[in-house]
Amino acid sequence: MPKCLLLLPNLLRSSVLRGLNLCIHSRIHSLQSCSSPSPHNRGDDEDEPSVPVEIFKSGTQSGSYKLGDSTFYSLIENYAVSCDFRSLERVLDQMKRERRVFVERNFIVMFKAYGKAHLPEKALGLFHRMGNEFRCRQTVKSFNCVLNVIVQEGLFTRALEFYSDVIATKSLNIHPNVLTFNLVIKALCKLGSVDKAIERFREMPLNNCVPDTYTYCTLMDGLCKESRIDDAISLLDEMQIEGCFANPITFNVLINALCKKGDLVRAAKLVDNMYLKGCVPNEATYNVLVHGLCLKGKLNKAVSLLGQMVSNKCVPNDITYGTLINGFVKQGRSVDGAHVLSSMQERGHVGNEHIYSSLISGLFKEGKSELAMQLWREMEEKGCQPNAVVFSALIDGLCRAGKPDDAREVLFEMKSKGYAPNSFTYSSLMKGYFDKGESHKAVLVWKEMEDNNCNHNKVCYSILVDGLCKQGKLMEALMVQKQALSRGIKLDVVAYSSMIHGFCKAHSVEQGMKLFQQMLCQESESQPDVITYNILLDALCMQNSIPRAISLLNIMLDRGCDPDLITCNIFLRTLREKVNPPQDGREFLDELVVRLVRRHRIKGASNIIEMMLRKYLLPKGSTWAIVVQELCKPRNTRKAINECWSKLYC
């Protein structure tokens, strides 16, 4: 230090030193802005130091103050913000060589930087280096920061291991606080270990920690995801008794769970409870309720809820409108959904691509192709650029409307705008050509997928097999099926049923039965359904193979597939035309009802009884008794009562 500085009084000397540091700081910033390379490019230049050498000319020690410490701290902060970890290590090494003082807040800045860069293991390593290498004592602050980085990365098991190791290390002397417990409870809930999370929750008072709103919210969310809604609501009561006031987020967790379960009555009561507690519902609350009403098909009530939102000074947002429009589309009321879109636009909201794709797809499915195309043009006029999802929806819709050539033109436009068609896009086009009877064009689309490196998935194979079978090209369909199996792709029930139907029509029932046996060995999506069974039952009965048909019916019942009206008609026709003497089928259907009731499949039994009554084939008195006894069981009675209450109050 210059001798002139030593002659100054202490206070003045400290001011001068601080001024020197400020000059150094400004020098750092100018060097960084003018000469330092971009953080993204620094890795390419190993030899160029990121930290200018001149700023490390350390001053002499003056009392307890060391010239330049704050300069290093500023460097750490700057490099952490830009995620320049190589330069950070150089600063740390320089500080070690000069025996600078390390403070915890600088490490916390670096931990956050590692979290931002998704490098949790680096944060862990630095935490363990703090004490041994840098002589900086870890406290619960740095511990929580690292724990949060690991939890945010979704490494919940790793977070719990880190927590256990640190708490068990007595030399660290770190005691968990509320934030620590909140992070541990979150990790346990995410892993599905809700009971263990509750144990940690009960340990909090023993550690002089009072649970906060976040603690309760996390536990309630974990309980709801485990379908333990009653326990979560009990926790809400406990929370209020303990003097921890619930906020809208707390109530929203419970309301969302109840709406997903379909229990709108209790959800509405919780909203009333919110008002009683002085907690005003927010946009998220109303969005959850609208979603719940849409799931239950109560769209008119969902629309009326919008008015209630506005009266409570909650403005419906894009999520509200999008949920409502999607609900109308799913209920086959896309025109009403389009009216909601118009109302939304009048209120200053612009429909996004998801809303347009949903509406366009729904209108085409309902046969309103002109309105769908009008919406497409309107979308472009309003400056909402279609994405791959909207293009795919339009292509699928045009194919449903019997216009695959127009759909191919849209495909060319889609490619020209830089959007790559996916398997769904090509599948729609293939199906459109098959439905129009132009199988050669469908096969060309299949080959085009290969040329564009678009993988053939299960749906593509199923559409190809189904289309070939409907064209009578059974051998080609079998070759495609074998190719799919060789690639590890198992066809769905539609493709198998199409092949079975094709072989049965060609009087090759045995080949159809072989495919049926293959289905029994497949996954759930390839398991035979009632349509598959009906195809084979009809073919066997037409061949007078009634014992084999009865055996197949037994397999159908044993595998949990209920007969439908077509199944019953097949056997009624057979008993009337193929059996000597002819039978009316009353006894056969009566026995079928009894077998279904004994398997507790009341819905299937009820459908057959309804058919019997329409054909004046009255069931036996004993059969009626069995059905009524099953219907009047407590669980069935309670279910019926709950459905009635739900219809009355929702």
Task: Describe the protein.
With about 650 residues, this protein is mainly alpha-helical. It has a domain at about 1-100. Helix content is about 70%, strand content about 0%. It has helices spanning about 5, 10-35, 70-80, 85-95, 105-115, 120-130, 140-150, 155-170, 180-190, 195-205, 215-225, 230-240, 250-260, 265-275, 285-295, 300-310, 320-330, 335-345, 355-365, 370-380, 390-400, 405-415, 425-435, 440-450, 460-470, 475-485, 495-505, 510-520, 530-540, 545-560, 565-575, 585-600, 600-615, 620-630, 635-650; strands at about 60, 65. Strands 1-2 form a two-stranded antiparallel sheet. Helix 3 (about 70-80) runs parallel beside helix 5, helix 10 (about 195-205) packs antiparallel against helix 11 and helix 11 (about 215-225) packs parallel to helix 13 (about 250-260). Mean pLDDT is about 85; it is low at about 1-15, about 20-50 and about 55-65.
